[in-house]
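Entry type: protein chain
Record version: 2
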Amino acid sequence: MSQSSSSGSRPADIESYVASLAQDARAASLALARASTREKNDALGQIANAINESGEGILEANRQDLRYAGDIEPALFDRLELTPARITAMAEGVLQVASLADPIGAIDDLKYRPSGIQVGRMRVPLGVVGIIFESRPNVTADAAALCLKSGNAAILRGGSEAQRSNQAIAQCVRQGLSAAGLPETAIQVIDTPDRAAVGAMLRQRNAIDVIVPRGGKSLIERVSQEATMPVIKHLDGVCHVFLDDAADDQKAHDIAFNAKTHRYGVCNAMETLLATPASAARIFPRLLGALAAAGVELRGCERTRALHENVSPATEEDWYAEYLAPILAVRIVETLDDAIAHIHRYGSAHTESIVTEDFSNAQRFLREVDSSSVMVNASTRFADGFEYGLGAEIGISTDKFHARGPVGLEGLTSEKWIVLGNGQIRE
């Protein structure tokens, strides 16, 4: 069964429908594994052109999604909404992936052994990648581009709230694949909002090699519990910014304000602000005032509340919270050691940043904070595949195997051992 139309018709048998898509993807993955870099880049260029040329159609589909979504939270609306600028950025992201070096077939550490054989490792595709995501329609284009360039077929299941937007973008992907002579079934988007499709995907262990969930905590927990194949995931984005004694006041103000207010509904937004007593005394009065004026609800410890009138009491739950909203937890800690201890206790191993001019403290923070991204004097908002030069990202992993942090092309590949000989036999 090939990719269904974008009519949104509901298949009679979800299990058979998803199994058929998975079988098609498995067959397409063999063609992609053989595809040259030129063929893959051609397809990516064609996809980007189709997105640009179909911009108004994509926007209209998105407007319909927004109308049907009704009265939703601002953070969800922000993730769901497309604009002309976001569509342009979507196409640019696809082209950036095309400009990246093709990892497939690269051979590392090829060395001669005493027997005369050469032993090395070759980078290869994972095979078929399943992506289950919510709200953000741009994930359709990002995931398609990364999977295609890394030689993987993909099955995408977006949220029902973005059904029309996802199908409009999927049509551009199919156009690009077809124009480049690659199978349209290499990238398939499930065209039913039926939630049973998620469970059906998670049971396709013989056809889907890895699952990537992108969405809320409940989705990721479900995928982690039910998946019969490996999962690339992060559960929460409880990101911290710590203002050290030696923080530059202006840098601290700008970094913390940006980390919280640039976008609220994203996993790399700051959710807890930490500071030593000395830096808080210097920086908090102006910074907390600016955050409050921007509409951020502040919840802080008693010492923080003493520095600004617009701070309500924080509870123990606030230190664990991923708000994805204009709410910020603020705490004064005595030392760098206390800041690191707080992050280890309450954090989610996503992204943390220290603001300091002290080289030794910066190095300690980098070494001792066990998160997938650790920063010095930069906003947590930079924890993103595009900003890291990956072109786009399939997601962010806070696990330690097999990928960690923003997952781009290399994170969607594996390695196999290769041996080159000239008639050697083992004695």
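Comment: The chain has 15 helices and 16 strands.
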